[in-house]
Structure formats: structure tokens, C-alpha cells
């Protein structure tokens, strides 16, 4: 996993930046179940990647998704929070 982190850092930074933009443009969803469900999905993908259920190239894709999805979701949350704070003041 450390090797993947070292190799995928540009993707992680890009996912976080894309999440910031998407979150700022879209804003916070009306239903709180949507972000909660996405975080649960990210946790399940990470658990499957850590358990090693999928071998080979498909496992690499799963581990990459497990690494890139949380920074994207965090960027979306920060962008939506920034939009909410900007519209209040």
C-alpha cells in the first residue's frame, strides 16, 4: 500500500483538487444520507482492498480506487463547506 501511495500521489492530489471544485460547484446535498452512504462505500472498498479479496490487476485497480476515493470525497466536503460559508457571509 505504501508503494501505491508513492506512485499515486499525483492522482491523490488531482482527486482532492477535483473534489474541491465539484463540491464548490454542486454544494452540499439536501439529504445527509448521500454523503454518509458515499463514506460507507469508501470504507467498504478500502476493507476489500486491505483484505486482498481480488488478486492481480483487478486488485491493483481496487486498491487504487480505495486510495483515491477518500481524498475526492474529502475535497467535495471541503468545497461544499466553503460554498456554504461563502453564501452565508
Tell me about this structure.
- The chain crosses the membrane at residues 36-54, 61-82.
- This protein has 89 residues and is mainly α.
- The protein has one domain (14-88).
- It contains four helices and no strands.
- The longest helix has 33 residues, at 56-88.
- The mean pLDDT is 88.
Figure out the total of helices.
4
Strand content: under 5%
Give the overall pLDDT as a whole number.
88
Share of helical residues: over 70%
Cα shape: elongated
Rg for CA atoms: 15 Å
Regarding quaternary structure, how should these chains be classified? single chain
Low-pLDDT ranges: none
Major sheet size, sense and barrel closure: none
N-C termini distance: 42 Å
Number of domains: 1
Number of strands: 0
Classification by helices and strands:
mainly alpha
Order of helices and strands: HHHH
Keywords: Membrane, Transmembrane, Transmembrane helix
Summarize the structure.
With 89 residues, this protein is mostly helical. 85% of the residues lie in helices and 0% in strands.
SSE arrangement:
Blueprint lengths: L1 H6 L1 H18 L6 H19 L4 H33 L1
